[in-house]
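User: Need the bound-state model for fructose -6-phosphate:
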Amino acid sequence: MEIRVYRNEKEIGEAAGKIICSLVNEKPDCVLGFATGASPVPVYEYLTEQYNEGKVSFKDITTFNLDEYCELPKNHKNSYYTFMQENLFGKIDVNPGKINFLDGNADEATESKRYARAIEESGGIDIQILGIGRNGHIAFNEPGAEFTDEAWKVTLTQSTIDANSKYFDDIPMPRHAMTMGIGSIMKSKKIILIATGHAKAEAVKNMINGPVTPLCPASILQQHKDVIIMLDEAAANLL
Ligand code: F6R
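Assistant: Bound-state model below.
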């Protein structure tokens, strides 16, 4: 694991964004794995800026997002599909036909196989962006008894509900989500995990210095051969 500490979120956005842009310029049809939530927003801002300045085009990339809520229509304002449209996809020249999302309302087993096959047929994810939950989750793989392989339907923990329910002002936050499994995430060729703020410090410590255990799902990243962990000073505080 390569640990890098930055002064602020903007610097993280630039650093991760530069890695992505240089891959896209070198391999225009690369496969990018995206996360939602607050952590990657500065990266998406940087990518949008570079696109607006004509320094990169995303027209041939394929994308896979990590997760999607169940019990929510795709176009609901709080769906992760809408989040990506608003924060990145609607602002760049990505081909809508090459954007891949889990369907939170589909049959779990069928959807899991479909997503695994789609990732494989794309040639595999070149760079996967991740955030980390306060409880150590990656994507929506919550702490549990074992690591999961492919996409599955998860019951969200209270910690995740507490962290994310602030975004739901009209309906209660869904209690379930479909998430890429740990096995699929680990197959990504390169992973960039972003964590900022004090609330993440404990999870970051467990991910990097703790044992590899499904009780802290992010700890599995210790076994990946190409992971960059990008932190601000607050998130790195307990290292
Ligand atoms: C989102 C996702 C989650 C978030 C995590 C951190 O697609 O997979 O694992 O990355 O919950 O969320 P933020 O960045 O909002 O603190």
